[in-house]
Amino acid sequence: MHIGQLCRDDLRHFVYNHFVMDEVINVIGGGLAGVEAAWQAAEMGASVRLNEMRPVQQTPAHRTDKLAEIVCSNSLKTDEPGSAPYLLKEELRRGRSLVMEAAEATKVPAGAALSVDRFKFAELITERIEAHPNIEIVREEVKEIPTGKQDAYPPVTIIATGPLTSEALTAEIMRFTGDDQLYFYDAIAPIVAADSIDMSIAFKAARYGKGGDDYINCPMSPEQYDVFYNELVAAKSVPLKRFENTRWFESCLPIEEAARRGFDTLRYGPMKPRGLPDPKTGREPWACVQLRQENLMADAYGLVGFQNHLRYGEQARVLRLIPGLEDAEFLQFGQIHRNTFINSPKILNETLATRTNPRLRFAGQITGVEGYVESVATGWLAGINAVRVLRDQPMIAAPQTSAIGALCRYVSNVETKNFQPVNITFGLLEPLPVELRKKHRNKRERHMVQVQHALGDWDAFIVDFYRGDAETQRA
Ligand SMILES: Cc1cc2nc3c(=O)[nH]c(=O)nc-3n(C[C@H](O)[C@H](O)[C@H](O)COP(=O)(O)OP(=O)(O)OC[C@H]3O[C@@H](n4cnc5c(N)ncnc54)[C@H](O)[C@@H]3O)c2cc1C
Fold first, then answer.
1. Closest ligand 1 atom, CA of 374?
2. How many CB atoms lie within 10 A of CB 233?
3. Is the peptide bond before 146 cis (omega within 30 degrees of 0)?
4. Which of 43, 296, 399, 433 has its CA 20 to 30 A from that of 324?
5. Are residues 235 and 356 in the same domain?
6. pLDDT average, residue stretch 395-409
7. Quick check: CB of 163 below 6 Å from ligand 1?
8. CB atoms inside a 10 Å sphere around CB 342
9. In this structure, are residues 147 and 350 in contact, taking their beta carbons and an 8 Å threshold?
10. For 355-378, how does the pLDDT look when each residue is reduced to its tens digit (9 = 90+)?
11. What is the pTM of this model?
């Protein structure tokens, strides 16, 4: 039969059987988002080519050749019912997420948090992906966005190359998005050994007494602030090698950049003394540096808001000017790390497809979500929609009330002015209906109800989706 003789349903059948089986979905990047996207697409019957450049080419943070390698903390955040991170994880678990299954199988004791043995976790995911009959893993750096043959549809592609996308592909993405639509950097704060803090100067307190003695505070006089400020703005930074026009992640602005905005900027920002009276004087100091406990042993404290990219020697010299930190032992210096992410509100729609080419989509941290599970969540949706586009089915958005829906709505919201990466929080979720808000005035209770409400909508969405998918696969 000629294709022109087929009716619409036959055509769908034809498209499914011929294109889904023959046409390959390209997933670029075998990190947390890429493996989830590949898995979801493969489970729906599509053939997937998963490109991962490691170990041929390493990133500055990864250490192994394993897929889904976790580069820093092994925590997937709290799993406490009634929290936004729990809701996100639960949606993925109900959506048969490979990454969440591996997290469950390799979890380690961590109180209310879900933390994993990072080696077993990556190993298990690698094994599962390698064993999947529909997935081919190609270990090479992708330098161009696949365009396919002339006159044919461009290949269905998911770019999930993460915060450390290789340089060649970054340039290619920039060509696609426009060079003012890609951002590059993020910074982390220094940590000092608790026993190296001079507690005859520093004092324990939480701002306005909220939270017991959770923080160690280093008070500063006007003269001490003056010296510190001048040394900070004059200190030598690590030069930015690759890109001159840096766009910082505002809520993670390096302290020396913040200081350059004005002499008093820090006193109204990370060195704000409000609500922190020094017990020795009974008065609020002129400026104050807060240090937050980093681990259960309470033997390490991080300088809150002091992310920076000064040279290590300069950091030690300047930060030891802070009263109480004269002899500080640095367990970790502040650093800057690459965080490549696109200006998604201009580029993506809620299904994570690019607005100009529905066969091309992005997933993971490169979309401007922040965090392991957030990246997995966008991979999950991108994988499903990649198959739907192959099958000529309408793409789907996650329900408005869900955590995945909230993340996708945030990254694709054209109204956003100053786009910054985000973790999942209740602030992103659609508020509960007014009557429920009125009924549950207690915050904890309201959050619990909101999670249940969201999961109810999620279940309906998932059931509908799996039923439709099963029918398509049976046809
Ligand atoms: C230094 C650092 C510390 C971090 N700490 C934390 C933390 O503690 N907690 C947290 O939740 N998040 C943290 N993050 C963010 C974390 O990277 C993301 O949450 C998560 O790993 C993003 O998942 P992803 O799949 O988008 O990217 P990744 O997991 O980074 O995966 C991307 C993959 O793409 C590959 N790749 C890149 N370019 C190419 C190419 N051209 N061709 C083929 N393959 C390519 C990479 O090798 C990598 O395997 C940190 C990030 C960095 C850089």
1. 19
2. 13
3. no
4. 296
5. no
6. 96
7. yes
8. 25
9. no
10. 999 999 999 999 999 999 999 999
11. 0.76
* Dihedral angle computed from the Cα positions of residues 126, 128, 131 and 134, in that order, rounded to the nearest 10 degrees: -100
Same domain, 49 and 67: yes
Looking from the CA of residue 77, the nearest atom of ligand 1 is: 11
| C-alpha dist (Å) from residue 128 to 52, 131, 153 | 15, 5, 31
Joined together, the tokens standing for residue 81 give: 């019912």
Q: Computed from CA positions of residues 229, 234, 235, 241, in that sequence, does the dihedral angle turn out positive or negative? A: positive
Average pLDDT over residues 236-242: 71
Do 148 and 295 belong to one domain? no
Residue 74 lies in a domain: yes
Domain final residue pick, 288, 305, 338: 338
- In whole angstroms, what is the distance from residue 214 CA to residue 230 CA? 30
Whether residue 457 is contained in a domain is answered as: yes
**Ligand 1 and 409: CB distance under 6 A:** no
Q: Would you list the DSSP string of 191-260?
A: EEEGGGS-TTT-EE--GGGTTTT-EEEEEE-HHHHHHHHHHHHHSPBPPP-S-SS----GGG--HHHHHT
Q: Judge if the beta carbon of residue 375 lies within 6 A of ligand 1.
A: yes
Q: Which of 126-140, 184-198, 201-215, 287-301 is modeled with the greatest confidence?
A: 126-140
In a domain, 1, yes or no: no
Domain limits for position 224 = 187-338
Let me know whether 282 and 146 are in one domain: no
Index of the ligand 1 atom closest to the CA of residue 370 = 19
Pick the closest to residue 260 from 251, 312, 269 (CA basis).
269
Confidence band for 187, pLDDT divided at 50, 70 and 90: low
Taking alpha carbons only, the member of 173, 199, 185 closest to residue 240 is 185
pLDDT at 21: 52
Task: Give one DSSP letter per residue of 138-202, joined into a string.
Answer: E-S---S----STTSPPPPEEE---TT--HHHHHHHHHHH-TTSEEEEEEE--EEEGGGS-TTT-
Is the CB–ligand 1 distance for residue 372 below 6 Å?
A: yes
- Tell me the pLDDT band of 425, cut-offs 50, 70 and 90: confident
* Closest residue to atom 22 of ligand 1, CA basis: 365
Establish whether residue 53 lines the binding site of ligand 1, counting it when its CB lies within 6 angstroms of any ligand atom: yes
Three-class SS state of 457: helix
Instruction: Domain count for the chain, please give it.
Output: 2
pLDDT score at 2: 40
Residues 308 and 354 occupy one common structural domain: no
Question: Is 6 inside a domain boundary?
Answer: no
Position in ligand 1 atom list of the atom nearest CA 31? 31
